[in-house]
Amino acid sequence: MRARLRGQIQQLLAFASLIAIVVFFSIANDRFLTWANVTGILLAATVVGLLALGTTFVIITGGIDLSIGTGMTLSAVMTGVFLTYLGMPLWLGVILAILFGGLLGLINGVNVAVLKIPPFIATLAMMLVAAGLSLVISGTAPIYFKETPDFVRLATGSLIPGIRFPNGVLIFIIVAIVAGVILKKTLLGRYTFSIGSNEEATELSGVNVTKWKIAIYTFAGLFTGLAGVLLASRLSSAQPALGMGYELEAIAAVVIGGTSLQGGKGSIVGTVIGALIMAVLTNGLRIMSIPQEWQSVAVGAVILIAVYLDILRRKNA
Amino acid sequence: MTPETTTTTALLDLSGVSKGFPGVQALDDVRLELRHGEVLALVGENGAGKSTLMKLLAGIYTPDAGTFRLNGEEFSIEGPRHAQELGIAIIHQEFNLMPDLTVAQNIFIGREPRSGGVFLDDRALNRSAQELFDRLGLTIDPTERVEHLTVARQQMVEIAKALSFNAKVLIMDEPTAALNDAEVEVLFELIQRFRTPDTGVIYISHRMDELARISDRITVLRDGRYIDTLETATSTVGEVISLMVGRTITGEQRPGQVQRSPDVVLSVAGLSTKKLLKNVGFELHRGEILGFAGLMGAGRTELARAIVGADPIESGRITVDGREVQIGNPADAARLGIGYLSEDRKRLGVVLEQDVATNIVLSTLPAFTSKAGFMRDGAIIRTAREFIGRLRIKTPSANQLVKNLSGGNQQKVVIAKWLAKDCDILIFDEPTRGIDVGAKDEIYALLEELARQGKSIIMISSELPEVLRMSHRIAVMCEGRLNAVLDNAEATQEIVMDYATRFSAEGTVS
């Protein structure tokens, strides 16, 4: 019972820090709490947040996925290929692009689970491959979605009548809930924790760890694909040179959310809060006209503080 | 002790089993027969092939040759899951639990009940676990996370998990290694409860006293070969041990009444810590082996850690060679000549991935650095060879990686490391844990020799016979208090246990 309470306190703490940062920026600058700015923050949190959701699963297994940033770029480029080059119907192009992200995850999963390449190396290689392929396939030029205006509305349009609430954010909320349920309530989620907690024991318990690891990486890849689709929609173009660095922001969000890089521990709620903290920080600092280079310093400091607080908490537990 | 065997066919029958690895023939034409309703002890030194045999039965390895029969029917094992389905359950020595999952989640891992085919039904999961515990007479909360359980309770979870498969054959590898006496009783009761005319237990252990109590027959392996099977009732410990090691080992003996040196090298007074220790005080004399006995959690390891500064002290005085000292961390302690050899050798004692020489000089590296800042490799090797010879460390060379040595020789490397640092006070925490019988004797001889040379030794051990055999005096702890310090001559297992279970006694004894 006490253990569960501790877990809840941790999430409460992360949530409280988020509130504190929001309050700070609202006082510091009155443009911060405007509807346009808030939805802007949420939309900004969507892309990194989606990557973070998928990679939460991978990190809980004790792995890491460095290929999500450029994998997202490649998925965005593939969206362009499907919709603009091949003229596929919108729904088909989007689904294929998401599945393409899953394919990248599948390859990562096979490399990690079957070939036993350490996740850091396997996904680092995939990161470079995806970055290169994005440039090759697009001919290093952005692909625009001029013929498919509906696609652009996918992220920035508003389904809810009356208020301007971007669809991208709606999608993120739905996907986060689904991810949360899968992590807590399905076999995939249970084995994600189990593998991260003690991989050998899981194997000895008769669970096919190889199969499930591949499934987890593939599943995480679907989020990469979706992130690519939404990024392309938001920018109304697939930018082949964009994406490197997003993986680190996503991993930072996961870590700020209390998921352990050692594996075995983590939550979707934490990751969502982590992604929001990252987005609020970046936005707030920009609104206060802090130069970009200093924003980066601030985010780095926040990661250190968050992880150190987590270590302190564990020591006292 | 043996219940009537219902059939003449054995429950489990292995014959001609061989398994080789590159460079080692781990098992060579081994046989094993487990009868219905019996507890069969499987003994042998480390490297005798017990683990390999277990892993074959667990479905982790596949045999190179051999026949497996279950109730007379030939079978083969395709994998861990298949072994479970066949009714073979294994309690591994290193626990195979997922610390971050709950008790119930651990027990039913791979067999989770689901509602609607997709979602996990955790309520049914917890109910099944509760039913299982009720049946076994265990009181464990199914929703508790495993990392919050004591080692003993984790083991109970392991056993409950094994029994939840309706296992016919239960194999236990050193199940009491981490248990205190009361917990061992609970375990034995579980085993008795499990044992029916349809089932059988293979019990692997180093502890001879347990085998005599729990087993019906004893099968001995040595160097990957089958040696013999004895009826427990008609064989002696000496017989079993000599079959295991292939030579006769002297039985229980006690340290001679040495003239205790009057020099007090270490004196501890009024030592308390926030967490556990309460007003502990004792003196350690030169050339003495002071044994520390007590149940798990009595505070012996905590005391050692507090003395060497690994954990903070709330109050208390420590005097080394008559001078009061402040020890802030283990480096301070080492400077004062106090070395602590942890019970968790693999994690805290040696660097497994480094070679013997590096490990031996690890804590004295600055002395092996030239003025220009380079390592003096020649001197390192010379020192390492000296200790390898002195402590009779069995290793092909000083450059062998420590992970390739046996447990006993790893322990010797740790001892060498502290001797290289010129430590005169050595605190051994469970020095023979995980070390096989033959090598234990060597460690004992080494400790005795060190004491004769004037080193002062504190030996924490959970094995009473070991404490009685080795210690000149025996300190007994309970609940963070030092309940008694006994002279070896006046100590018996009963007296020591009496003090070890005297909860909330008062004051210190010196």
Automatic annotation (TrEMBL), chain B:
Gene Ontology CC terms, in alphabetical order: plasma membrane
Source species, domain of life: Bacteria
Record-linked SMART domains: AAA
Positions of the ABC transporter domain: 12-248, 259-504
Subcellular location as annotated: Cell membrane
Gene3D superfamilies in the record: P-loop containing nucleotide triphosphate hydrolases
GO molecular function, a single term: ATP hydrolysis activity
Keywords: ATP-binding, Cell membrane, Membrane, Nucleotide-binding, Repeat, Sugar transport, Translocase, Transport
Membrane topology note: Peripheral membrane protein
InterPro entries listed in its UniProt record: AAA+_ATPase, ABC_carbohydrate_import_ATPase, ABC_transporter-like_ATP-bd, ABC_transporter-like_CS, P-loop_NTPase
Protein name per the record: Sugar ABC transporter ATP-binding protein
Source organism: Agromyces albus
